[in-house]
Design goal:
By secondary structure, the chain is an alpha/beta fold. It contains 12 helices and 16 strands. It folds into 2 domains: 2-152, no CATH class; 177-369. Helix 4 runs parallel beside helix 7 and helix 9 (209-218) packs parallel to helix 11. It starts with a helix and ends with a strand.
Length: 370
Amino acid sequence: MQSKTKEKFESLSDAKEQKLAASFSGGGLDASMLENFRISRDEAQKVLIVANSNSSDSMALLDYYYLRRPWFYYIANRMQVNCPITEAITTAEYLNLEQQIAAHPKIAQIKYIILLLDIPTRVPEATYLTLWASVSTRLYHKFNKEKYITHLNMGSLEDCRAYVRKLGAIYSATPNSQKSIFISGRKSGLVGNKFWFEDVESKVIYGQHGKSAYVTIMHIDSPYYEKIYKKEPPHLWQCQDVVGYLCWGWNGGMHGNYAVPEPEAHGGKVRFSGKSNWYLIQTIESFNGRREVHQGHFTQWFSHWAFGGTNYSSTPICAVTHVDEPGLFGVNEPTILWKKWIEGEIFAKCAWDSVKSTPIMFVGDPLITI
């Protein structure tokens, strides 16, 4: 049934295509809306969503994301893979996973691969610094850097569903004339406009990633946004209307639970307020892409009470993380990452264009923008 529907969709005449475009836009149609529709339809056909058939949560998220993410239903591609339900896998297990994805009948046209909850995230790859590479980096090189890989693998199924609901809410609030597959927080009018960067108490002499990001975006003509940078203590404990956030987390003396109120007394000290529901986060912590670690990590950032919020009101929309030690010079290049983000590039391109090492993992929908 699905394939027949897709074939019918792709063969629509211009007149029928316009009616379908109007249904996506919620009403009237003009030339720009029709163009947005066609671009979105074509881009959605390049998406492949991957779930783990051994995980009921992963399979449930596959249906939820596919049905509720604007522009994916009936257009995007999806598949199940048979792999372990663990963060770390052996090289042999990784190669089996890689082969399954590479065998998808439409893999040649795929540009975005989204790995869902309970897909493994790291595989052995010894270098002078690290023992692990990310699964997504291995796939990125397998496909000759022609496909962008991100994860939707927050701490729980409900955390992932809340993320998908946020995508839908922002899309619904976007004016019909500007709706497309590239969901933009700014176009909705519901998100913040402040960048918060700090290098407070960074433990290394070359620890200037916050400053690099700040100086970069200060040179971009963007009067709509405010940019805040701090080098000396205290930390930026209270941030408002966040659209971008960079800190050193545990490496900056914040303790590992700075984003959530438990389990230690130092937890939950970083608090976001105002319109802080759509932002990119980068922390200079080696293991923030693991689920159980002494440092701050992505499952905390995407939890319902993160950064002083309630019901996911202060969670990010995308995150740059590491599944193993990247080394200071292996952290994503901030001058590229943040320049592209403020200029409105999609998250997938912001992230992958700034890669400098193999343990990198990106969390979030690949097609969202600031």
